[in-house]
Amino acid sequence: MFGERLKQLRESKDITQQDLADILGVSVGTIGMYEIDKRMPNNKNRKKLAEYFGVSSDYLLGLSDDPTLTDTEAEQVDDLKAFLKDSDMRAMFKDYDLWTDEEKQAVLTVLKGQKALRESKE
């Protein structure tokens, strides 16, 4: 069920398996395996897929026939789409899963500081 839905969603967006592989940071072969239900994405990539396609995880997994997102999920999807359109951001975070916890925390601290600074100016 997952593979069938993934392929249908990918084709509806008119993107290739390579495009989707680039978005997730996996090989095109991995996408092919997903689509024939020979392999399942990890939780992080399953979430990315749901957000990218604007559907619920339950829909992707075949647990629901309703692809509708909540308002919060829809906002997160919009944020993710904007993020993915920025090639510098995609390149910078492509290997995020290889970062140490300390590296992740350092980047998060900087981002929170920037947000607080921006909000203080508003």
TrEMBL record:
It comes from the Bacteria. InterPro entries: Cro/C1-type_HTH, Lambda_DNA-bd_dom_sf. Keywords: DNA-binding. Signal peptide: none annotated. Residues 6-60 form the HTH cro/C1-type domain. SMART domains: HTH_XRE. This is XRE family transcriptional regulator. It comes from Eubacterium maltosivorans.
